[in-house]
């Protein structure tokens, strides 16, 4: 087991009239090498769970373990040494005012000791180019262009490559195709799957695209109001169809009094 959340309690606006308890004694675990697709309605706790794992939010109670070691109090930047994250907004994972090459060089120095040295190691350029060629978007020919001039799909592909440049142990994909057009979204998923399979990296992917949730990964988790209501592994996931998930969404919507 690589990741474990034990008895997590997460409360928003604690002590106010708007207090909301999202997680109450919430438990979640992930095995080494799993590719977990996570779905759920808005407010179900998907992104909050990712934030707790990455350290950008803290729970009121509970413990988080990574590879058997407790990281509950570990800062976000220290967790970044072994966790890579790609956000929904392509602008977040890259620096628009820097070139593709400069972005990659900056990522390549992640976790390295501080000191005075050239920002770009020219001996690494061919390696950077080989990484970009995997995207099949022509990025290897745009290394000296400012990232802000790239399309959303190209920029998100670069963010994915950057997230995997150092030896991370967990990849977090936070609706990383949601802001892309259908063609770019499909290309992004193809690239995502290729990189995950190549590196065998443990991955958590939050998505609103039910087809992607069904087609990609070897485990599927559905969340609702801070609880896991479906947890499908391997063969059970393979038998699941998009309509099955829609039926569950409709059922919980009716139970919540929202209607359909």
Description:
This protein has helices spanning 46-54, 76-79, 100-108, 125-133, 152-163, 182-199, 210-215, 234-238, 242-255, and strands at 3-12, 20-30, 35-40, 61-66, 69-70, 83-86, 170-174, 202-206, 219-224, 227-233. The longest helix has 18 residues, at 182-199. It is built from nine helices and ten strands. α5 (152-163) runs parallel beside α6. The protein has a domain at 3-94 and 168-255: Rossmann fold, CATH 3.40.50.300. β1 (3-12) and β2 (20-30) form a beta hairpin. By secondary structure, it is of the alpha/beta class.
Q: Spell out the CATH superfamily of the domain at 3-94 and 168-255.
A: P-loop containing nucleotide triphosphate hydrolases
Largest sheet: 6 strands, mixed
Gyration radius over CA = 19 Å
- CATH topology of the domain at 3-94 and 168-255, what is it called? Rossmann fold
- Which CATH class of the domain at 3-94 and 168-255? Alpha Beta
CATH architecture of the domain at 3-94 and 168-255: 3-Layer(aba) Sandwich
Q: What is the terminal-to-terminal distance?
A: 38 Å
Strand content: 15-25%
Order of helices and strands: EEEHEEHEHHHEHEHEEHH
Number of H- or I-type helical stretches: 9
